[in-house]
Amino acid sequence: MRVRGGVRGAAGLGGWLSARGWCAGLVAVVVGMPLVTAAHAPAAVRYRVTRTIPVGSYPRGVAVDPAARAVYVANDGDSWSDGTVSVIDAATGTVTRTIRVGIDSMSVAVDPVASNVYVANYLAGTVSVIDEATGTVTRTIPVGSDPVAVAVDPAARTVYVANTDGTVSVIDAATGTVTRTIPVGGSPAAVAVDPVARTIYVAHDDAGLSDGTVSVIDAATGTVTRTILVGHFPAAVAVDSAARTVYVPNSSDGTVSVIDAATGTVTRTILVGPDPEAVAVDSAARAVYVAVAGDHAVSVIDAATGTVTGTIPVGSLPDGVAVDPCTHTVYVTNLLSNSVSVISPSM
Hints:
Elements: H1 8-20, E1 46-54, E2 59-65, E3 70-75, E4 82-89, E5 94-103, E6 105-111, E7 116-121, E8 126-131, E9 136-142, E10 147-153, E11 158-163, E12 167-172, E13 177-183, E14 187-194, E15 199-205, E16 213-218, E17 223-229, E18 238-240, E19 245-250, E20 255-260, E21 265-271, E22 276-282, E23 287-292, E24 297-302, E25 307-313, E26 318-323, E27 330-334, E28 339-346
Antiparallel strand pairs: 1-28, 2-3, 3-4, 4-5, 6-7, 7-8, 8-9, 10-11, 11-12, 12-13, 14-15, 15-16, 16-17, 18-19, 19-20, 20-21, 22-23, 23-24, 24-25, 26-27, 27-28
């Protein structure tokens, strides 16, 4: 992780990582994909699906706590009753808990510092806060209308919630209260945090424009500093803080827009396949994973070259993807298979 001088939050997070010995030797690990040797790898490294784990009904968002070796899956359910969160033990691949949250749970994010999990409940208009140790919901926080995505800045103890009413709710993690509501326009579909640059990215489809946009928010001031045109119907957003790069899958175009965070310009548009719905970045491995629902697969992008180097078949309609940066394991939610595919690198 590249830390700028004077960024107190990033430095605090770095201290926590060091103290806990988190991901020791991470940058020395290189991963690849099935039947393809990564161009930058010292040896042939491949990906394969090593497990398929049954979870709840209609799994959508997924998040990893690497230190706790836990994976959290937001299950939408039938959209009219309470959703659930399946807790997976990453070591054994078994579901150890099923936690009831709010109606229509869509997205999940982990604060590994405070050991809390945040779940956006779309129809309930709330965020559920789960204590990782006990598996209980400790708070239910009202936010904007139809919250669709959630992201955490652990060092700043702040949670960001994208609401489809065109706003972002900012939650103080210590108090569980909404401290700001930031108008961003359009219909937000996803949110991501760059904790080093203290920047928030919100992907949404803007009514009246041919292309979707990404709003860039200064976390310190809570103001939108840039609006970047991307492709049609952006579905997700992910940040590579070290490389100062942002990835946005555009579901209607079958592409991923690559944004230079320093300049706010789209530097590449990468064809990945029909209906890409989610994206995750493994910064140390220089790999980007895109859940391509139309192909029932995950496309792997080499971040250095911007090329698709592998395609991994998973379950039916993959809708969410997350990476464990310590083990480089990839977790994919399959919406119609009610399962999680576990993709592991192997030499």
